[in-house]
Amino acid sequence: MSIDSTEMARSLYQSGVVAFENGKYREAVESLERANSLVARNTRFGGEVQIWLATAYEAAGRNQDAVDLCEQLKRHPDIDTSTQAKRLQYIWKAPKLNRPKEWLTEIPDMGAASSNNDKTKFVTNTSSNTQKAPQKEYVDLSQVNTEDNRFIWVALIGVAVTLSYLVWLNFNA
Q1: Where are the domains of the chain?
Q2: Given a cut of 80, is residue 139 above it in pLDDT?
Q3: What is the chain's percent helix, strand, coil content, to nearest 5?
């Protein structure tokens, strides 16, 4: 493999990773597939490119391609690549759990909103089982112990004694 193809593969790899992180999964797949064709697949970098490619496949909805690529990568000479491929394949082959609709929050499609902000109205979904704000609770003052329990006086005397002692130490030092 020449230095030019290695540079080109690294450039395509970086653009694929950036596209993936920006949510452009089809673009990421294209860049990573081109990088994969330029790199030696049995190297550590080749394994890294293929792991990212498998992840991009899965994100783009090509689950079977992702699982098949991980099956190949499980026999990769780089131990980190093969371990990561096994873990990813395990996750992607796991059965999908059904979540109750109450657990999900629907996010409105803002692409359909008009460009005029003054005319756009947002409606919040309020369910019928929402709780009302708590009522103010009034306390019967005849039930409250309002007698002086002398704690404040003891605390104030303790603070005064401590301050006096500190002032005395300051002048005698």
Answers
A1: 3-93
A2: no
A3: 60, 0, 40
| Distance from C-alpha of 43 to C-alpha of 160, rounded to nearest angstrom | 76
Q: CA distances (Å), 22 to each of 51, 90, 108, in order?
A: 18, 25, 20
The CATH fold of domain 3-93: 1.25.40
Task: Say which residue the tokens 């290695």 belong to.
Answer: 6
Give 2-26 pLDDT, tens digit per residue: 678 888 888 999 999 999 999 999 9
Per-residue pLDDT reduced to its tens digit, 75-127: 999 899 999 999 999 998 888 888 888 888 888 877 766 555 555 555 555 55
Instruction: Find out whether 73 and 85 touch, Cβ atoms under 8 Å.
Output: yes
Q: Map tokens 């797949």 to a residue.
A: 29
pTM: 0.56
CA-CA distance, 120 to 138, in Å (whole number)?
43
Position 123: which residue type? V
Half-sphere exposure of 40 (CA within 13 A, CB side): 9
Helices and strands in the chain, H and E counts: 6, 0
